[in-house]
User: Fold this.
Amino acid sequence: MNTVDADDILVDDLPAPRHSRRLAVVTETYPPEVNGVAMSMARVVDGLNRRNHDVQLIRPRQSAKLTPPSSGIPAVDEVLTKGLPVPLYPNLRMGVPSKRALVKLWSLKRPDVVHIATEGPLGWSALQAAQHLALPVTSDYRTNFHAYGKHYRLGLLSKPIMGYLRKFHNRCDATMVPTEAMRVLLAERGFERLTVVGRGVDTQRFDPARRNDKLRARWSAGPDDLVLGYVGRLAPEKNLGVVLAAYEAVKAEQPRARLVLVGDGPMRAELAARAPEAHFAGPRSGDDLAAHYAGLDLFLFASLTETFGNVTTEAMASGCAVVAFDSAAAGELIHSGQNGWLAGPGRESDFVAAARMAALDGAARRGVAEAARETTRRLDWGDITTRFEAVLEGAIGRTAQPFETAA
Assistant:
């Protein structure tokens, strides 16, 4: 008889198999709508699909004016609800109260967890329905509604809005925030069960290799001309007056410098009057958007109302040197003078000075752009999905009575 010594036995410490879950994701914005919430939520849904989870997406029916995406958006089981136009955002729609319909839907096909991406009427209905059915609930804090008050004359509503948001998120088993700074801020304001889950960036799509001299020529920029740019909504909360001030300071010393604004919004006419020589590219998406980023030399982002600001990481991945305020994604990722330039929040003269310095020092600008690209290589959407998934599992695990998961 042959004997085997115990020391000769190799035991693999294999991880436990991942459960396939039935997930309900509720959001009031989703592609082809173009905004940070919609696009990042689509990437998370895609990641969950790839991990063999059964995702049910619940959102308002979108405007007929929107063109469906040709590719790149994950196909999921969609439940479309009624929607109303969002004030000041005519291409977006918010959901309407739908608690009864969601209770019926989830009673017939019970999810393991409900994730709510937005806090509008549909999100509130989803929270109520989930609690009625004793379902675990997670949420995202994605938009600084309270910070928009000074831009839209909502000052008197700032405290009630914050009170509503705190009430909403404190009823959830976990709330995901995109940065540590946001976690600290909300914790100081009484928000509970906060966890940081950042945002990724597609470094294959957003790539300096997409730089195109023909596109730059359409902006009246030669191969060696300096092009400054901004991507996002042309709206008061984006602090675009500071962007124009920086551009004017640069142009005073480099008359051939160009300004490219990608996006649309209520400030377009005002901006065109102030900077008639600027190129207004309108809304862009997909590879076309990536080419616009890659065509820029210096990216100016002056917003102070972001919870994250996906455009910051997209610009960095595209090989742009970024000038921003020390806030949101920029404050989390940029080390000033190494992979971008930061100004203290609200210090507009410092922002303008940083843009001017970056414009004049080509060698420093190119070095910063290369370092910015390297920084974004760590922001893989797969890692973000893993963290997101872990928060969902934690919420499921804390429920008093575990329910059978999807096969």
